[in-house]
Amino acid sequence: MQITVIGCGYVGLVTATCFAEMGNRVSCVDTSTQRINALQRGEAPIFEPGIEALITTNLRAGRLAFSTDTAGACSRAEVIFIAVGTPSAADGSADISQIVAVASELGRTLDQPAIVVCKSTAPVGTACRVQSVLDHQCQRRQVAWQHRVVSNPEFLKEGAAIDDFMRPDRVVLGTDDADAERVMRALYEPFVRNHDRILCMSRRAAEMTKYAANTFLATRISFINEIASLCEQLGVDVEEVRKGIGSDQRIGHHFIYAGCGYGGSCFPKDIRAMLQMAAQYDMPMPILHSVEARNQQQKTWPLRMLKRELGNLHGRTLAIWGLAFKPGTDDIRDAPSLVLLDALLAGGSSVQAFDPAASDNIAQRYPEAVKEGQLKLLQDPYAALNNADALVLLTEWKQFRQPDFHLVAQRLRTPLVIDGRNQYDPQTMASLGLRHVGVGRQVAPPAAPVLREVV
Ligand SMILES: NC(=O)c1ccc[n+]([C@@H]2O[C@H](COP(=O)([O-])OP(=O)(O)OC[C@H]3O[C@@H](n4cnc5c(N)ncnc54)[C@H](O)[C@@H]3O)[C@@H](O)[C@H]2O)c1
Ligand SMILES: O=c1ccn([C@@H]2O[C@H](COP(=O)(O)OP(=O)(O)O[C@H]3O[C@H](CO)[C@@H](O)[C@H](O)[C@H]3O)[C@@H](O)[C@H]2O)c(=O)[nH]1
């Protein structure tokens, strides 16, 4: 099939390369000349395991092409995916102006009917808006055809994006057009060979499904983080509780890991967008407000623990392992590391940090601190520990799972490990002379509850 993908970010590139890998001819467009030039040389502008190999193979095979010319790239396309950004506007709502701009351009320039697919995460009603923008242009140009708009939200996770796309749990197609459904089913058929995991529904339901999925996952994380806080008060280990509840099949083990909060380009933004969608109908959505508030609070957990253990942090040197919002990516958008770095740097602490992928992005965000030497971004995780008053683990990269604890204890000035992702066993750490502070797993005896008089 001849496909065009508009937007060469995480979603656009993964979509394009995976469809090309299945034998389709895919043209990719982006407004960034720099991005397109790099892609034409086979260089990925994003950090995503496996993406560069897919780009190179499919470029060489002639199934993949990159350009900045939308009209040219769409001239023979049967299916056109819109995978541009939908960032938060000032009020928290999803800004769909990039989608609308693409739709207008397509309406003005397409000389054949196409299936236009909204892949970006966008509020309920966006696909209908794209349809009316296209319809309006067709009427203006007095052409005889109508484009068909499908909502096809994407569920990939950064760091595992190719695997998620190649083996999706489900493919959601929002359309009531039988022809469009047939073409889209055929396109996705190679990815759902074992059994049909394609779910067809209305465009509005497809859009809502994406927001409901993300906000539900975020709710699970904030829920376990709240339970973890209570565990800290009660002297209970939340890791035991996690296993205890996760083994109930109705709950399951996924997305119930307590930590220092969720970040990334999706959960925070999509919760804000969902709240704004609801606000238009005067819906208060108290659950989602709490999910968001709990997450903000959770991101301050590492700082609170450092203060509890060390007192005043002014003049202290702190080591951080992991700056990306999760392992497998260089993405620092809404990462818990930003909350900690902002506070430590403003409070006069020095930071020595290591991340396998995200250091460049952090350097761009804190250029002054890097220049003045207050923030050192190191190439070696153990070099970050030299004379530090504590090690704070924020991202659970695999290489941090079994570090040389003897070296950790030797390098640190104070043997304190703040484990923001519950990676380490408190007993093992204690046996090595390291004080370990995990999320929701204090080993202290339970404190007395505040007793209230029963009336
Ligand atoms: N990142 C993820 O893990 C993920 C997963 C699922 C869904 N989503 C959603 O998918 C959408 C895209 O996310 P992303 O992370 O790929 O964004 P991104 O910012 O990485 O990429 C978007 C790209 O679109 C380009 N672009 C903007 N306007 C354009 C135009 N008019 N023509 C051509 N290119 C244009 C930008 O230059 C950029 O390269 C968002 O709605 C996001 O919420 C993201
Ligand atoms: O039990 C858990 C699981 C995750 N996280 C955190 O949650 C955030 C998001 O993680 P993850 O969902 O793995 O990453 P994303 O790449 O943001 O993917 C989410 O957002 C995408 C964009 O919409 C969706 O497509 C994916 O399905 C959805 O998982 C990260 O900060 C994680 O550290 C936890 O704290 N505890």
Automatic annotation (TrEMBL):
The keyword Cytoplasm does not apply. Pfam families: UDPG_MGDP_dh, UDPG_MGDP_dh_C, UDPG_MGDP_dh_N. Pathway: Nucleotide-sugar biosynthesis; UDP-alpha-D-glucuronate biosynthesis; UDP-alpha-D-glucuronate from UDP-alpha-D-glucose: step 1/1. One of its GO terms (molecular function) is UDP-glucose 6-dehydrogenase activity. Substrate binds at residues 155-158, 210, 255-259, 263, 326. The active site is at residue 266. Residues 319-426 form the UDP-glucose/GDP-mannose dehydrogenase C-terminal domain. Its EC number is 1.1.1.22. InterPro entries: 6-PGluconate_DH-like_C_sf, NAD(P)-bd_dom_sf, UDP-Glc/GDP-Man, UDP-Glc/GDP-Man_DH_C, UDP-Glc/GDP-Man_DH_C_sf, UDP-Glc/GDP-Man_DH_dimer, UDP-Glc/GDP-Man_DH_N, UDPglc_DH_bac. NAD(+) binds at residues 30, 35, 86, 121, 158, 269, 333. It catalyses: UDP-alpha-D-glucose + 2 NAD(+) + H2O = UDP-alpha-D-glucuronate + 2 NADH + 3 H(+). One of its GO terms (biological process) is polysaccharide biosynthetic process. Keywords: NAD, Oxidoreductase. SUPFAM superfamilies: 6-phosphogluconate dehydrogenase C-terminal domain-like (SSF48179), NAD(P)-binding Rossmann-fold domains (SSF51735), UDP-glucose/GDP-mannose dehydrogenase C-terminal domain (SSF52413). It is an enzyme of class 1 (oxidoreductase). Belongs to the UDP-glucose/GDP-mannose dehydrogenase family. This is UDP-glucose 6-dehydrogenase.
